[in-house]
Write a structure and sequence with these properties.
Blueprint lengths: L21 H60 L2
Length: 83
């Protein structure tokens, strides 16, 4: 679970609490950028995994088809060799 960051304050913030210092504001913005970057990285990783799983499935089907074709060709070769 991601930590909850405080919302940025505009103006004096008398009603919503004290205003953030420039250093606190920079740190908060950095944390927000980092959080967004991490979310984007996780999404890219998820998409990459989905693509790899699709490719594994596709190659598995192709491998099965080639095994069947190979078996048929070996049978044909065996028949031709024994004539």
């Amino acid at each position: 679970m991601l930590p909850v960051l405080p919302k940025p304050q505009n103006g004096s913030g008398a009603r919503n609490g004290p205003a953030l210092s420039s250093a606190e504001d920079k740190e908060m913005k950095k944390k927000l950028r980092n959080r967004e970057s991490a979310l984007a990285a996780r999404e890219r990783k998820k998409q990459k995994m989905l693509e790899l799983e699709r490719r594994v499935s596709e190659l598995g089907r192709e491998n099965s088809e080639l095994k069947v074709e190979n078996c048929a060709l070996r049978g044909t070769l065996s028949t031709v060799m024994h004539k």
